[in-house]
Design goal:
Elements (H helix, E strand, L loop, with lengths): L12 E5 L3 H11 L4 E5 L2 H11 L3 E5 L7 H9 L9 E5 L4 H9 L4 E4 L4 H16 L9 E4 L2 E4 L4 E3 L4 E3 L2 H11 L8 H7 L10 H15 L9 E4 L3 E4 L3
Parallel strand pairs: 1-2, 1-3, 3-4, 4-5
Antiparallel strand pairs: 6-7, 7-8, 8-9, 10-11
Length: 241
């Protein structure tokens, strides 16, 4: 008597993009036990492969000849079919302004080269867990704290002075702060509650860079924030009054 086959479990698809073939192959070897891994070596190939396989996450090198990682990321973000795919940058550029540029282009997270392959796997796992979980949906479309208004359908944010569209990860961060007004969050708490990173896995720099990009979009003067406040030695908050 034949034994009924169990339903197939869909294996997450990871697209690895790096012009250094040795680095790309080492990443592939470390991931292929748990993921379907596709490897390409250029930005142009990444766009083609993403359209072909619709990966669940893209691990993207920044410094590449031709179409670099930043431009590749921007191209992915303006393609409606690919715009929501999370992107993890790999970069040898470690300056804060380089990381800000990467997140501003639409990346969800970044690792600085050289990196630990185990940490890479933990970051990928956390990002996939975050995007796959089903968030509780509020009844109202608009969330408002003082003059700051967030539209959960369009990812648009408006104030009396500015209007902008947020990336998915920026939306998640601002949504979390706005739905907990006056509560102060440390970077570690935000990494866990917004990004779903296990303790001591995510970098506090990730929070700082996304906060910086959010302030650029919502604050009239980002150097003197009125909405997204830093509480010295404690963390970040949005005050309701």
């Amino acid at each position: 008597m034949a034994v009924p086959s169990s339903p197939e479990v869909e294996i997450p698809r990871v697209l690895v993009v790096d012009d250094d073939q040795e680095v790309a192959k080492s990443i592939e070897a470390s991931l292929r036990r748990n993921y379907q891994v596709f490897v390409v070596y250029s930005g142009i190939s990444a766009l083609k492969e993403a359209r072909r396989h619709n990966p669940d996450i893209i691990v993207l090198d920044v410094v590449m000849p031709g179409l670099d990682g930043l431009e590749t990321c921007r191209e992915l973000r303006i393609d409606p079919a690919l715009a929501d795919i999370p992107i993890l940058f790999l970069t040898a550029l470690g300056r804060p302004e380089d990381r800000v540029a990467g997140l501003r282009a639409g990346a969800d997270d970044y690792l600085t080269k050289p990196f630990n392959l185990e940490e890479l796997q933990l970051r990928i796992k956390a990002i996939l867990r975050r995007v796959q979980r089903k968030p509780s949906i509020p009844t109202q479309s608009l969330i408002k704290v003082r003059d700051l208004e967030l539209d959960r359908h369009s990812y648009g944010v408006t104030t009396s002075k500015k209007k902008a569209v947020l990336t998915p990860v920026e939306f998640d961060l601002l949504y979390h702060l706005m739905t907990h007004p006056n509560e102060v969050f440390t970077s570690d708490r935000l990494l866990k509650e917004v990004w779903d990173y296990p303790s001591e896995t995510g970098s506090p720099d990730l929070v700082r860079m996304h906060i910086k990009n959010l302030r650029r979009k919502v604050e009239e003067d980002p150097s003197k924030p009125q909405f997204i406040l830093t509480i010295p030695r404690r963390g970040y908050t949005i005050a309701s009054g």
